[in-house]
Amino acid sequence: MSVRKLKPITSAQRFRVVNGFDAITTDKPEKSLLVPNKRSGGRNNRGKMTMRHIGGGHKKKYRIIDFKRNKTGVPGEVASIQYDPNRTAFIALLNYQDGEKSYIIAQNGLQVGQNVVSGREGIAPEIGNAMPLSQIPLGTIISCIELRPGQGAVMARSAGAFAQLMARDGKFATVKLPSGETRLVLTECMATIGVVSNSDHQLTVSGKAGRSRWLGRRPRVRPVVMNPVDHPMGGGEGKSSGGHPRSKNGIPAKGFRTRSKTKASNKYIVERRKK
């Protein structure tokens, strides 16, 4: 009787991590909140390629997300936690008491059947509730933050993102971001209590090239193996090419600052992010 030898497990297989979708409660989206999402393939309105390494991918529809949370004072029950192919975070479907439905960015710990509400007064600082920074207790972990009143959430809304409310002085609140940056935000701006869901997203390893193709990502080639006509780091005999790391447009990488020194919002940054 012959014994078949098992192949040893490679390091890639040992450390392969697949995202856990334990928090998701359904795989059927709300049809009334879906709109078509046409792929560009990295081309602009003239058909010219302006973004490289984009193309193909599975067909998907866009989920309309309520980033403004301007339905004040009306409690909404969490009907389900769903996967959104257009973003890294999970989303929650809310059924409001007046019959309206909407999607919001789901926070860690948000449960089906839980009620969430948004408003400017009389709102408890609980997970999923949206309220202005003037009403949130100091030290609270927040996410989905506005930078202009009524604009809608633009900061800390990707998977695992959060910020901390540190202080208030007059019409400004001091918010500390995970990058180490500390900035001023108007106290009238809305924010949601809690950390954005799907914190394990950063641990995901695709495992094979095909999964990247499903996501619409095409293969990319290292700049040093290109020709001089294709990239500033290309050319040369053998492995003598390269030079200082830079983009295809010649902008240096690894430490080169691209933020404008005259940008209007610079005055709101109290402390820059840590390198």
Can I get a quick summary?
By secondary structure, this protein is mainly β. It has a domain at 221-267: Ribosomal protein L2, domain 3 (Irregular). The protein is 4% helix and 20% strand.
Map the helices and strands.
Elements: H1 11-14, E1 34-35, E2 62-63, E3 76-82, E4 91-96, E5 101-105, E6 115-116, E7 130-132, E8 141-143, E9 163-169, E10 172-176, E11 182-186, E12 190-193, H2 209-214, E13 269-271
Notable features of this structure?
mainly beta; Ribosomal protein L2, domain 3; globular
Any overview of this molecule?
The chain is globular. It is mainly beta and about 280 residues long. It contains 2 helices and 13 strands. Strand 10 (about 170-175) and strand 11 (about 180-185) form a beta hairpin. The N and C termini lie far apart (about 60 Å). The protein has a 7-stranded antiparallel sheet with strand order 7-12-8-9-10-11-13, with no helix packed on it. It has a domain at about 220-265: Ribosomal protein L2, domain 3 (Irregular), CATH 4.10.950.
